[in-house]
C-alpha cells in the first residue's frame, strides 16, 4: 500500500477510539526493522517498513508530507523508535488499530539545527571547506568561507563526524533535543596519509555543488621551489589546470581563455588591482599571510562577481587565539616577519606580517642619486568573538613599490581594508556583512622636485551582505546585496601648483548595486541542484565628461555631467545553474552553466609580461559591459586508499564585448581613449585534469590542460579569428614533494606550456632607410614551448623536532637544466661591438638579426625560515 | 615626460637576470602581393622620387623594384606623370617641382590592372633647434636628441668625418641618423630598447634637414617606429602594420613635407 483514500481515513478514525490488547500492541511495535533511506520519499519509507512488519499504514496523504525526501538509517532498531523518530521529523503520531498503523498528523515536522564553526585546535583558525556530517545522513555539509556549518537533524542521538585534509577526523556523540551551537576543533595530524572518507562520504569537491573550484593550500605553496627563494601566491596559480602565466617573470595570468584583466583577486573580500612587485617579478601576496586560497574558474559565488574568468579568493589568517607565535623568511630579495597571538585567549586574536625588499644596495653604487628602490607589503588582521553568535573581523593589506631617483621615478600602491561582521541569526541562519575599501594608485614622476607626475587611480568602497539559510537535506538558500561605489582616474598629470592642470582624461565614477539569490537542494539522493540569479544595475555618475563618437571613431561632441548626476545605466542578469550527480560516495559528476558580467576593463595594449602603465576604464556610454557564458562539465573522484583526488573538467566559454585595440593605439593620456578600442568575440574551450595527493611522505600533483582560445574582431585582420594570449594548447604541471627523512624534504616542479602566440613578420620593406616589418595576421606565430624543472631541498635545523622554535633553510635551483625560455623575439636589432644588441640608428647600416630575450636560466638561491 | 634614468635603473633589475642572444628563427613568409610606396616629396625644387618595390621575405633582404607602373601626381590644378628612371629601377621621378602648402596632392599608381592612390598635405616646418651633442668618450661625440618646436617633425643628420684624422682604415666615415620628435606619449617610446651609438669626432660636418609631418604621416611614422626603433624593449605594444595613407593593397607612405636645412661643424667641447 502506498496512498490511501479519504474513505479509508474515515474508517480508521472510526476505529481510533476502540480498545485493543495493549500487550500485543507493544510486542508488535517493538519488532526490529532495518531502514536505509537516502532522500527517499516518506511514502516509500513506509512501504519499506510495511514489508518488514506485516502491518499496513493508514494515513491521509493530504495531511502528511508523503513526498518529502527522508534520509534515515537504522539497523535492527525497534519499530516504535523508528516511528517516533520519523514522527518527530515529519509531524505525526501513530496508533495501532488491528492490522493497521494509523498515522495522525500533528502539524509539526521537526528538524533541529546543529551549527557552529570548525576550527584548527592548535591555532584557533577557522577551517574553510571542512566536511561535517552525522551518521544518520548520507550527505555532508561543508563549512563555508568563514568556517561556519549548519546541519538540520532529527532530535535524538547522533554521531557527528568532521574531517579536513591534514587534520585528524573528529568524532563526537551528541544528544540533540534543541537547537545547539557546537564548535568543532580539529587537531592537525601530519601523519595522516590520506583525505579520509567520513561515513563513506568524500570530502571537499565531491560534496560541493560546485564546478571549477580548486583550493590551494598555503602550506603547499610554501613547499614549491621558487625563483630566488620568494614564495608567491600568484605564481603558484600556474599549478592550477586552466591557468597559465603569461611568461617567465610575469604575474599576468590567463584563465580558461579569458584576458588578463578578467581575474578578480580578493583579499578578505576587498579587490586588489595590481598585486605585483618589481613590475611583476613577484606578486605582493605571500602564502604566509593566507589562511585559505580558493580559485574559481567557473560557477563563481554570486557574491564575488565582476570578472569573466576567475575569482582568486584569499582569506587572510585570523591569528592564533591560543598562544603567541611568529615566523620569518629571509631570501636574497626580501625579508619577512610575522606575528600572531591572542588579544584575549580564545576570544580575540591578531595577525601581522610584513615583507620588505632588500635590494637597494645592489643599485645604490651604480646610481648615486637613487632615492628609493623598494617594495613592501603589510597584512594585518584582528578578530573578536563577541559571543557564539557574533564575530567581528578587521583586515588590512597594503602593497607598494617605489623606484625613485631624486628627479623622477615610478611608484604604485594597493591599499585595502575590510570590516566583517558574522552574525548567526538563528542556528540555521547565518549572515555575513562586509564593508570594505580598496585603493590602487600609480604614479609616474617626471619631475620630483616640482612634484609633477602622471597618476592613475581606482578607489572603491563597498558593502556586501549575505544571508544563508541552511535547511534539511543539504538545502541552502542564500540572498545578498552588494553595493559598490568606484572612482577611476584613467591617468592624468598632477602638479603641486595651486591651480591643478585641467583633466585630459575624464575621471569616471560609478555605482553598482546587485541583488542575488541562490537555492541549493537535493532533488534525489544522488542529484543536487543549485540555481541562482544575480541582478545588477551599473550606473555611471558625474562629475565626468564623455565624448560622442561618429561611426569613424571621431569625437564629435562632449557632454559634461554634474557631480552626482547619473547618466548611463546597464541592467545586467547573471543566471547560474549547477547540477551534481553522485555516481558513488567517492565520485560525482557535475555540470554548470553561468553567465558573468564585467564592468571594469584594463586598458593596455602592451605585449609586455611586466606590469607597467595599465589604466582601468569602466563600462559607460562608449564601452559596453563584457559578458561571458560558460558551460562546464566535471568528474570528481577521491581514492582514499591512495590518498588521491582527481578532478577532470571540460569547459566551453563564449565571451562577448571583448576589448582589443586598434593598431598602435595610444592609451596614455588620450582623452578619446575609447576611440582606440574595438570590440569582438572570444571563444574558448578545453579539458583539464588534476590529480593530487596532499598528504603523506610523498605528496604532489599532476595537472594537464588542453585548451584553445580564439578572438574574432571585425576591426582586426578583417574579422579573421586569431589565437589570443590565452591560447596555450598544452599545459603540463608536475609537482612532487618527498620527505627524505624527518628533517629533509626534496621538492620538485616541472612545467611544460605551449608557446605564447605572437606576431612575427611575414615580409619586410624599406622606408626612410628603416626596415619595416609586414604582418599578415595577429599572432600568426608562437614562441618556443616553455618548460623548466625546479628543485628545492629543505633542511630542518632543529636539534629536537618537537621544539617550539622551528627553523629551516631551503636550497633551491630554479630552471635546473638552464632552459632558455624566451619572453620576446625581435627582428630589428644589430650586434654591437661590445657583444650586445641594439636598434640600429645609422640608417645605411644593416646586418639586422633575430634575437630572443629570456630571463632566469639556472638560478640557485638559499632562503631561511623560522617559526615559533 | 621622461623617465629615462628610472627606467634604466628599474630595467637593470630585469637586465641583471635577462639575456638577449641572436637566434635563427624560421619566419613564416608570405608572398605579399603588396605594393610598397616610399615617397617623401618636399618643398625643395628638384625631381622628387617615388619608389615602388615589393616586400622581401627575409631580414636584410633586397627589395624587388616594381617596374612598369604608371604613376601620376595630381596637384589639384595639374597632373604630372612620373617617369621610371632608369628603366626597371622602380624609381619614378617627377619633373623638377616644389611641393607647396595648403594644397592636396594625390598620388595615383596603376599597376597590374589595379589602381592605388594616396593623398597628403604639406605642413609648415618650424625652425631647426640649436645643435646639441655630448662627449661619448675622450675623442668622439654623440647626438643629444631633443624635442623641438610644437609640431611633430623629424631631423635627418648626415654626418661626415672623412675630412678628419679619425677617418682611417676600412670603417665608414659617414653616418645617417634620423631623430624623430612626434610629440607622442607612448610607453614604448618612453622606454625604448638600447640604441646603436653613432659617435663622431670633432670636425665632423653634419647636414641637418628638418621635415614637417602631416597628421597622417605622423600616425604612419609612429607606427613605423613602434615596429622598429621602439620595438625590443620591455614594454612593447601589439605588433601591427603602420597606418598607411595608401589604398588597399599597398603599404608605405606618400608624404609631403616642408624641409629646412643647415650645416654644422662639430666643435670640441670643453
In words, what does this structure look like?
The complex is a heterodimer of chains A (868) and B (270). By secondary structure, chain A is mainly beta. Chain A contains seven helices and 56 strands. The radius of gyration of chain A is 31 Å and the shape is globular. Chain B is built from three helices and 18 strands. The relative contact order of chain B is 0.18. Chain B is mainly beta. In chain B, 11% of the residues lie in helices and 39% in strands. Chain B has two domains: 35-121, Immunoglobulin-like; 124-243 and 258-265, no CATH class. The longest helix of chain B has 14 residues, at 4-17. At the A-B interface, strand 27, strand 29, strand 48, strand 49 and strand 53 of A face helix 1, strand 1, strand 2, strand 14 and helix 3 of B. Strand 55 of chain A pairs antiparallel with strand 1 (19-22) of chain B, so a sheet runs across the interface.
Which descriptors apply to this entry?
heterodimer; A: 868 residues; mainly beta; Phage tail protein beta-alpha-beta fold; Immunoglobulin-like; Maltoporin, Chain A; 22-stranded antiparallel barrel; 5-stranded mixed sheet; 56 strands; globular; B: 270 residues; 2 domains; 6-stranded mixed sheet; 4-stranded antiparallel sheet; 18 strands; 11% helix
Amino acid at each position: 500500500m502506498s496512498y490511501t483514500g479519504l474513505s479509508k481515513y474515515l474508517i480508521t478514525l472510526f476505529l481510533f477510539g476502540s480498545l485493543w490488547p495493549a500487550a500485543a500492541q507493544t510486542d508488535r511495535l517493538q519488532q526490529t526493522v532495518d531502514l536505509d533511506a537516502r532522500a527517499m520519499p516518506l511514502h516509500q519509507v513506509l512501504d519499506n517498513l510495511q514489508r518488514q512488519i506485516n502491518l499496513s499504514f493508514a494515513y491521509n496523504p493530504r495531511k502528511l508530507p508523503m513526498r518529502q525526501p527522508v534520509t534515515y538509517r537504522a539497523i535492527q532498531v525497534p519499530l516504535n523508535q523508528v516511528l517516533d523518530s520519523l514522527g518527530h521529523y515529519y509531524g505525526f503520531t501513530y496508533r495501532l488499530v488491528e492490522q493497521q498503523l494509523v498515522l495522525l498528523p500533528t502539524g509539526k515536522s521537526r528538524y533541529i539545527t546543529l551549527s557552529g564553526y570548525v576550527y584548527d585546535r592548535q591555532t584557533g583558525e577557522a577551517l574553510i571547506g571542512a566536511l561535517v556530517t552525522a551518521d544518520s545522513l548520507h550527505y555532508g555539509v561543508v563549512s563555508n568561507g568563514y568556517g561556519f556549518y549548519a546541519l538540520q537533524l532529527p532530535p535524538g542521538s547522533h554521531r557527528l563526524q568532521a574531517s579536513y585534509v591534514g587534520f585528524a577526523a573528529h568524532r563526537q556523540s551528541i544528544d540533540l533535543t534543541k537547537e545547539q551551537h557546537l564548535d568543532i576543533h580539529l587537531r592537525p595530524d601530519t601523519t595522516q596519509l590520506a583525505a579520509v572518507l567520513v561515513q563513506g562520504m568524500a570530502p571537499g569537491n565531491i560534496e560541493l555543488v560546485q564546478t571549477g573550484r580548486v583550493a590551494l593550500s598555503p602550506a603547499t605553496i610554501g613547499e614549491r621551489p621558487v625563483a630566488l627563494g620568494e614564495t608567491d601566491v600568484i605564481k603558484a596559480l600556474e599549478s592550477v589546470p586552466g591557468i597559465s602565466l603569461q611568461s617567465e617573470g610575469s604575474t599576468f595570468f590567463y584563465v580558461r581563455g579569458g584576458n588578463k584583466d578578467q581575474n578578480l583577486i580578493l583579499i578578505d573580500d576587498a579587490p586588489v588591482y595590481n598585486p605585483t612587485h618589481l613590475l611583476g617579478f613577484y606578486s605582493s601576496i605571500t602564502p604566509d599571510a593566507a589562511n585559505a586560497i580558493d580559485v574559481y574558474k567557473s560557477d563563481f559565488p554570486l557574491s564575488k562577481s565582476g570578472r569573466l574568468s576567475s575569482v582568486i579568493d584569499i582569506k587572510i589568517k585570523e591569528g592564533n587565539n591560543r598562544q603567541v607565535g611568529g615566523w620569518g623568511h629571509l631570501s636574497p630579495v626580501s625579508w619577512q616577519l610575522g606575528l600572531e597571538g591572542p588579544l584575549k585567549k580564545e576570544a580575540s586574536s591578531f595577525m601581522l606580517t610584513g615583507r620588505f625588499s632588500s635590494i637597494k644596495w645592489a643599485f645604490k653604487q651604480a646610481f648615486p642619486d637613487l632615492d628609493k628602490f623598494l617594495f613592501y607589503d603589510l597584512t594585518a588582521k584582528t578578530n573578536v568573538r563577541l559571543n557564539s553568535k557574533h564575530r567581528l573581523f578587521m583586515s588590512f593589506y597594503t602593497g607598494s613599490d617605489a623606484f625613485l631617483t631624486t628627479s623622477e621615478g615610478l611608484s604604485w600602491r594597493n591599499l585595502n581594508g575590510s570590516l566583517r561582521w558574522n552574525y548567526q541569526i538563528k542556528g540555521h541562519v547565518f549572515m555575513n556583512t562586509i564593508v570594505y575599501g580598496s585603493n590602487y594608485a600609480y604614479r609616474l614622476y617626471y619631475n620630483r622636485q616640482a612634484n609633477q607626475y602622471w597618476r592613475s587611480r581606482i578607489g572603491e568602497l563597498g558593502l556586501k551582505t549575505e544571508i544563508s539559510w541552511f535547511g534539511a537535506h543539504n538545502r541552502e538558500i542564500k540572498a545578498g546585496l552588494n553595493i559598490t561605489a568606484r572612482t577611476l582616474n584613467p591617468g592624468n598629470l598632477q602638479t603641486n601648483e595651486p591651480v591643478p592642470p585641467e583633466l585630459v582624461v575624464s575621471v569616471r565614477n560609478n555605482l553598482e548595486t546587485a541583488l542575488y539569490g541562490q537555492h541549493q537542494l537535493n532533488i534525489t539522493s544522488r542529484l543536487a541542484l543549485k540555481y541562482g540569479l544575480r541582478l545588477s544595475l551599473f550606473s555611471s555618475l558625474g562629475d565626468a565628461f564623455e565624448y560622442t563618437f561618429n561611426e569613424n571613431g571621431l569625437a564629435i561632441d562632449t557632454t559634461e555631467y554634474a557631480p552626482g548626476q547619473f547618466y548611463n545605466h546597464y541592467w545586467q542578469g547573471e543566471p547560474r545553474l549547477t547540477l551534481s550527480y553522485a555516481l558513488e560516495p567517492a565520485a560525482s559528476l557535475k555540470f554548470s552553466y553561468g553567465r558573468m558580467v564585467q564592468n571594469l576593463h584594463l586598458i593596455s595594449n602592451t605585449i609586455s609580461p611586466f606590469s607597467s602603465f595599465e589604466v582601468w576604464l569602466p563600462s559607460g556610454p562608449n564601452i559596453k559591459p563584457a559578458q561571458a557564458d560558460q558551460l562546464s562539465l566535471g568528474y570528481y573522484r577521491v581514492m582514499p586508499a591512495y590518498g588521491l583526488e582527481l578532478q577532470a573538467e571540460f569547459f566551453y566559454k563564449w565571451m562577448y564585448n571583448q576589448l582589443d585595440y586598434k593598431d598602435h593605439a595610444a592609451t596614455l593620456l588620450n582623452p578619446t581613449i575609447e576611440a582606440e578600442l574595438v570590440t569582438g568575440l572570444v571563444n574558448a574551450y578545453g579539458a583539464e585534469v588534476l590529480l593530487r595527493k596532499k598528504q603523506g611522505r610523498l605528496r604532489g600533483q599532476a595537472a594537464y590542460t588542453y585548451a584553445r582560445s580564439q578572438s574574432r574582431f571585425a576591426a582586426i585582420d578583417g574579422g579573421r579569428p586569431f589565437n589570443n594570449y590565452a591560447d596555450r594548447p598544452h599545459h603540463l604541471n608536475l609537482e612532487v614533494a618527498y620527505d627524505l627523512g624527518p628533517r629533509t624534504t626534496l621538492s620538485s616542479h616541472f612545467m611544460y606550456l605551449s608557446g605564447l602566440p605572437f606576431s612575427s613578420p611575414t615580409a619586410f620593406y624599406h622606408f626612410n632607410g628603416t626596415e619595416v616589418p609586414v604582418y599578415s595576421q595577429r599572432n600568426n606565430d608562437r614562441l618556443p614551448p616553455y618548460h623548466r624543472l625546479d628543485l628545492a631541498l629543505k633542511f630542518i635545523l632543529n636539534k629536537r623536532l618537537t621544539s617550539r622554535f622551528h627553523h629551516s633553510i631551503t636550497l633551491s635551483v630554479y630552471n635546473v637544466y638552464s632552459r632558455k625560455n624566451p619572453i620576446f623575439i625581435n627582428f630589428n636589432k644589430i650586434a654591437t661591438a661590445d657583444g650586445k644588441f641594439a636598434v640600429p640608428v645609422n640608417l645605411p647600416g644593416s646586418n639586422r638579426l633575430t634575437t630572443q630575450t629570456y630571463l632566469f636560466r639556472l638560478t640557485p638561491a638559499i632562503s631561511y625560515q623560522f617559526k615559533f | 615626460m621622461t623617465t629615462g634614468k628610472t627606467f634604466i635603473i628599474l630595467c637593470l633589475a630585469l637586465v641583471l637576470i635577462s639575456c638577449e642572444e641572436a637566434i635563427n628563427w624560421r619566419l613564416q613568409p608570405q608572398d605579399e602581393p603588396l605594393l610598397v610606396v616610399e615617397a617623401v616629396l618636399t618643398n625643395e625644387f628638384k625631381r622628387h622620387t617615388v619608389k615602388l618595390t615589393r616586400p622581401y621575405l627575409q631580414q636584410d633582404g633586397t627589395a624587388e623594384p616594381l617596374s612598369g607602373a604608371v604613376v601620376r601626381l595630381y596637384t589639384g590644378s595639374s597632373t604630372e606623370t612620373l617617369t621610371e628612371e632608369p628603366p626597371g629601377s622602380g624609381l619614378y621621378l617627377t619633373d623638377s617641382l616644389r611641393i607647396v602648402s595648403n594644397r592636396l596632392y594625390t598620388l595615383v599608381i596603376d599597376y597590374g590592372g589595379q589602381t592605388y592612390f594616396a593623398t597628403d598635405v604639406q605642413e609648415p616646418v618650424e625652425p631647426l633647434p640649436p645643435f646639441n651633442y655630448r662627449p661619448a668618450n675622450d675623442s668622439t661625440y654623440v647626438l643629444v636628441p631633443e624635442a623641438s618646436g610644437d609640431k611633430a617633425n623629424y631631423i635627418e643628420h648626415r654626418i661626415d668625418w672623412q675630412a678628419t684624422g679619425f677617418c682611417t682604415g676600412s670603417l665608414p666615415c659617414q653616418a645617417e641618423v634620423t631623430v624623430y620628435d612626434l610629440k607622442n606619449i607612448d610607453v614604448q617610446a618612453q622606454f625604448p630598447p638600447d640604441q646603436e651609438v653613432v659617435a663622431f669626432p670633432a670636425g665632423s660636418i653634419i647636414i641637418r634637414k628638418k621635415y614637417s609631418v602631416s597628421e597622417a604621416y605622423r600616425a604612419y611614422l609612429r607606427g613605423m617606429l613602434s615596429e622598429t626603433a621602439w620595438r625590443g624593449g620591455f614594454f612593447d605594444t601589439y605588433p601591427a602594420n603602420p597606418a598607411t595613407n595608401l589604398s588597399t593593397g599597398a603599404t608605405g607612405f606618400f608624404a609631403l613635407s616642408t624641409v629646412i636645412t643647415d650645416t654644422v661643424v662639430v666643435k670640441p667641447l670643453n
